[in-house]
What does this fold into?
Amino acid sequence: MIKMGIIGMSLGNAHPYSWSSIINGVFDAGEITKIGYPAVANYLEANKDTLGISNAKVTCVWTQNREISESIAKSSKIPRIVNKLEDMAPLVDAILLSRDDPENHVAMAKPFLDAGIPIFIDKPLANTKEDLQYFADENAKGKLIMSCSSMRYANETRIVKQEIDSLGKLELATAVGKKDWIKYGVHIVEGLFALLNDPKPMCVKSIGKKNKEIVYIGFANGFQATIHLFMDITGTFQISLFGQQGWRLMDIKNSYSMFRDNIMEFVKSVEQGSSRLSFHKTENIIRTIIAAIESSKQGGKTIDMSKF
It folds into this structure.
């Protein structure tokens, strides 16, 4: 049995609740709804027959607020709350750092990486080149680091991936999502890159503005993608893929399925002692996210990825 510790929580990110419930196989719908996540309670209820991962349990929780820690523990029957982040290290076999504020990831991951404990870090792994380099260096030392958006495991994109050859030569992808580039753009980039077998972009350019972010990504062979993140539209994640012989629209909605598959991939990684997701794929995606940030800072300058 893999003993897991879960670290939370950042504003608006329900993963400490949902992921603990998916692993432990239990949830308190009333508690999750009370804290402000009725949609999470609904999808856990709809999928309760598949809750639970037999060879793993969340046994410890830490957040920056004792009351929140108690709420998460109550919701998914986590037996232990620790008062200090670093107190968790000797108690667990693996860590889920389920916060999506990348500016805190290095500080929160470091005690566990120093102790050689496998860690999954919620998306985005980093939002600066310096923090990304820290994780790349730790990976090079043999530390087990897995980080991605669960959109990598979305059933909606996997179905299209099976038939992608029927579209002919791919020319264009367009994608639309709600909220901001740093925390939510990574969802779409991860989903798109996984669909296309993780290509390396040649250039990245931010052409939008605050709360209406548009990012252009150019690839080899003329393939292009535009990603739109608008703060004030209704909630959605859509990817459209256009080829010379056909097209497909992916309307990505099944959060539970992708979360469960993501968690199971991490559990399998811990069991085998190495990440089943190559760190280089994660690095490629995060570099793309950071390049768009840099482009925006420079007034929409095109970033040459071979020099970035």
